[in-house]
Amino acid sequence: MLKYRLLGSALLISVSCIPVGIAPSNAQVTFRPPRILAPRESTGGASRDGNSCLSAHTETQQASVTPVIPLNRIGFTVKERPTILVYIPQTSARKALFSLQDEQANNHYQTTIALPAKPGVMAIKLSEYVPALQTGKNYQWSLSMICSAELEPDSPLVNGWVQRVHPPVNVKNSGHLSPSLELVSHLANNGLWYDTASVLAQLKQAQPHNPTISISWQQLLNSVGLNAIANEPLIN
Asked: What is the rounded distance in angstroms from the CA atom of residue 138 to the CA atom of residue 200?
């Protein structure tokens, strides 16, 4: 079981219905951020906002590539290969370089991924061929936009950290469950950011007009300072 102290006040999202999976009549989603700090940046910075291929900011659109992670730039997962969410603004870039490194800057995985044609929150799903993350170790992921024929020093870049942990008892056998707000509640209550965000994103994509799910998603992102992208669409 995870053991950590809570940082600040927990986010409480009240919901009245659970439309998918196990479905009690009432549930609550409470994200409890653990007290954990990201390792020192091996690349000298958490983000690089080059603008060679990004559109200008508008009132309704965030201009920067934005990692969907808490302010401390690290989150927990119980998955061997977690899903990572990143907001991609309007851009002329058609692909990006995604990489994973350990704390010693050893490459764990690297690949080129296609970028969406429209702005929105994109899910980066690690395939079964990616080596499993080791429990208790920190990994830094990064996404660098490829704005021309090759990667350039000023290409927009974002990164974050992920740590795989042993699953708590109340989520240990949840891998076979369908996405539901009850499952999200268990994940969030145990401070599992990557799993909470990815399952809730799945729900939102499956039921885009469900107000309960939409509000839960907005409040989850607002709770970690991601208000600017809380209303942006989820894209494949």
From this structure: 24
Q: Is 13 in contact with 30 (CB distance < 8 Å)?
A: yes
Q: Are 202 and 85 spatial neighbours (Cβ–Cβ below 8 Å)?
A: no
Residues of the chain scoring pLDDT < 50: 1-27, 43-46
pLDDT for res 2 = 35
- For residues 223 and 219, give the distance between their C-alpha atoms in angstroms, rounded to a whole number: 6
| CA angle at 52 for the pair 46 and 54, rounded to the nearest 5° | 75
Q: Give dist(CA 127, CA 216) in Å, integer.
A: 28
pTM: 0.82
Domains of the chain with bracketed CATH: 11-235 (2.60.40.2550)
Residue 17: per-residue pLDDT: 35
**What pLDDT was estimated at residue 34?**
84
Contact 60, 168 (CB under 8 A): no
- Rounded Cα distance between 193 and 19, Å, is 22
If we measure between CA atoms, which residue out of 145, 141, 159, 158 comes closest to residue 55?
145
Query: In angstroms, what CA-CA distances link 206 with 99, 123, 200, 236?
Result: 28, 14, 10, 12
Q: Which residues contact 3 (CB under 8 A, 6 or more apart)?
A: none
Question: Which residue, 123, 128, 105, is CA-closest to 113?
Answer: 123
